[in-house]
Amino acid sequence: MKKKINEVLQFNAVRIHPVEIEPGQLEYALLDTEVGIIMVVGTSAGIYYLGFAAVNANAALSLDPVLREVKKLWPGTAVRENKSVAALLLPPDGIIHVYLKGTPFQLNVWRSLAGVKSGERISYSELALRAGNANATRAVASAVAANPVSIVIPCHRIIRKNGDIGKYHWGRLCKEKLLDAELKKDCHTLF
Fold first, then answer.
1. Mind telling me the catalytic residues?
2. pTM of the predicted model over 0.85
């Protein structure tokens, strides 16, 4: 049975931890939601990756592309299934811990991106301004596109200046579903 996004994601804040060393072992869990099948990857400490293994009801479950992305980010790391990893999305203290590998510029953009509230849609240029890099809109857009923790670091909330929702790594339909769920209050206030 599919769950509402707000049933699998409940948090009040995101803490971003920069990482430079390989975690050694990562575990993943799959969550079937009305938006698609989410794959959360992490350790007991927090989330290292979050993406979609399938984005609509008719799509076949496809772990290989998502696992390839994880291995590209963490090449020396073993990955295995562990359903308890899903609990990382429901932290008892309301704080999701995210471990990211990126440049200082990317980490700064991702921190600013984490501050975009549910239901809010902003342009790339507004995000650049919030990140303290008003003249770096294209570089900010590249950092948004490189975000390895979809939804929790809400890249789906960034739209084009003309109001068009634009592209999304997981497809335009997935982005539309996420934005619609937020407007309908079908998900947690910060998700």
1. 155
2. yes
